Structure formats: structure tokens, C-alpha cells
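User: I'll paste a sequence; please echo it back and then give the predicted structure.

Assistant: Echoing your sequence first, then the prediction.
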Amino acid sequence: MSNALAVAATTATLVNLLVQATPNVTALPPDKAHDEGVEEQLNLFLYSLDISAAWRNADPPGLPPGETGPAPLPLVLRYLVTAFAGSEVRAHALLGAAMSVLHDHPVLGSDEILDATSGPLPGSDLHQQAERLRITPAEVPLHDMSDLWSSFSASFRISQAYEVGVVLIDSNLPRTAPLPVLRQGPGSDAPLAVPAPAAVLTAALPSVGSVAVLGATLRLLGTGLAQVTSARLRSRRLPAPVDLVPAPAGEGEMRLALPDPDAGIDSWAAGVYDVTLTTQRPGLPAVVSNTRSFGLGPRITVAPATAPAGDVTLTLTCRPRLRAGQEVAVVLGSAAPVAPTATSTPADPTQPSTVTATLPGVAPGSHVVRLRVDGVDSDPVRMAGSPPRPEFDPAVQVVVT
């Protein structure tokens, strides 16, 4: 989603697009727009902001299962494009050129938004919004258009209205991040749920724990897996997909060994991955399965192990290393995620990234620490005892006294 600069970032991006029609583009009210000293001019005026009914009560995009959070502010922006020129014929030609530019850009790309905002609005993150911004011509009745111009005491000029949306502005209210459930009921173990057989890849699950990590094994469930020759993993944080060879593990299951944390520290990235399976039979084209997603959590260390009550500053190491643009947060117990005060990735590619965060008002007790990277948490659970049972790993806890 986006911060409060999203509305201004949208206007700046549209102005940047309209420069393709004429270099003189303004974003002013109609009564102040026309510059008599300019031969040709386009003006972009934001005259209305509406709430998108489809997104009004929706959960924030990317919210992990089991968490709750306030809905984003979903805005549909309404703009008026007006052309000014020395003659009406030239003004009509200029308006047609502007409409042609917007017609050729029905969806605003992240690169277009970043190019338009990196200078005037460096704090904008609209280009990272998952929901794309769409430009749609709007039909405004003539009397409504006339009323709009009359309200500015300006002479009516032929114009075209557009809707741009949806802009999703993050809420500043905190989210809740409950800890994983260790067992169902006192002394009971949760049942293992296996999907019904299917002719496609049905699930990609960690073999141990609640999230996949480097050095562990990924379970691939489905049917028709006996002839699979390779698995392809894709992440938007990696420049190229990763191909691995899975191993059979019984009827309807394969195992995919993820690289050691030290081997993959710089070549992998925490976050969400898509996995597909490829079957290559001799003399036949390769057949690619459907896609399933899984989360790769970071492996972390936490320091210090003990701290006095109050504001607690923690330093975490992260494997694999953080990449530019990744969203990072520290979660203490069931409290709301806290943005880090500093992150650092050393030049040495064999060294982990470090994350520093100050957590306010921590009460005495033992608190589980998680690192969230691109929406995927580190795994705070380990298997211990005989028979093995899940418990919170003491290595990722901080004792506050």
C-alpha cells in the first residue's frame, strides 16, 4: 500500500505523462490555470476524491493469515484535463493529443510512478503499491461540468474527466500479530492435514516448523509427481528464477532441499516464493504444473538476551541478507510490528544483515522475538523433547526484568 503522499504522487505521475503532448502542463484550479504568455498549455485539476466501495472494508493487502488490521483508505481520484491554445482548433488538437497519451497508458506502471516522484516526492512509496492504478475516462453530464466551471467564475472550456484508482493509503492504527498455535487443547497434538489427490501441485509446505527456512526441506504435495524433473522457484526480489531438483518422498509427495544458510545468504531473499514443477519426457515438450506459493522466513539471532523493563533496543541478524526495498518489521510477543530504527547490510557478501529496533514500554517477562521480511515471519518454534514437541526457541527470546 502507500503513504499519505499517494494523492500528490498520482498527480505528479499524470503531469509527467501529459508532457508527451506538450511541455507546458500545470496542475492548478481552472480560474488560475491559463497562462496568457504560453502558446499551448494543458491543465490537470483534481476536482474530487471518492471512497472506493469495493475496498472500503477490505483487509489490507498482504495481511498474513490470522492477523487483523485496519482497512486502508481506498481513494478514487477524479481529474479534469483542459487544453488552452491561441485558437480553439489548436486547443482541440492539444486535448486530443492529451487524451491519446492517457488512452495509451490505461495502467500506471511502477517505473512511471517512480520516475515522476523520485525528485519532487522522494518519500512517496506509491510505486510499491500492489494494486495497480488504472486510468478510466469518466462521463460527466454537461450541467455538472458547467456547474464546476461556474463555481470558479471561469469561462467554460471543453474538457475531459478521468477517474484514477484505486489509491490505497495505509492506516496508522496498529495491527495485531498473534503467536503461532503450538497445539490444540491441553496436551494434544494438532492433526496433520493432507490435501486430497489431484493432477496438479496442491501445496508447498515446510517439512518442519511453521515456515520454510534456508537449510530446511520443502514438501511438495500433489499427484503425478513421479516424472517431475525439476522445480522452479521465483521471487520478485531475485533477478532470476532458481531451479532445483526435487527428490521423491512417497506417493504424492516430493522433497526439495533448500541450500544451507551460509551458501544462500546472498543469493536468496526472505519473502514469498512461487514454485512450479516441470516434467520433461524424452522427445516431448516440457510440461509445467500450476503454481503454488510459500513463505521463506529469515533465520535470525537476537541480542541482548536480557534487558531491563521499559524501552528495549534489540539487534537482530538476518540470513539471507536483506535486499533493497524489502519491508522489515520486528514483532515482540503478540504486540504490533515495529519498524526498525536502522538496517545494515555489510559489503562482505558472507556476512548477514543486521536490524536494530527500539520496542517501547516492554513489561517484565520472557518475550518471543520475530523478524518480518516482506510479510513472512521468522520461525520462533523448535521441536524438542522425546517424543519431539513444539516449543518456543529460547534463542529467539528476550528476558525483560
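The first helix runs from residue 6 to 18. Confidence is low (pLDDT under 50) at residues 192-199.
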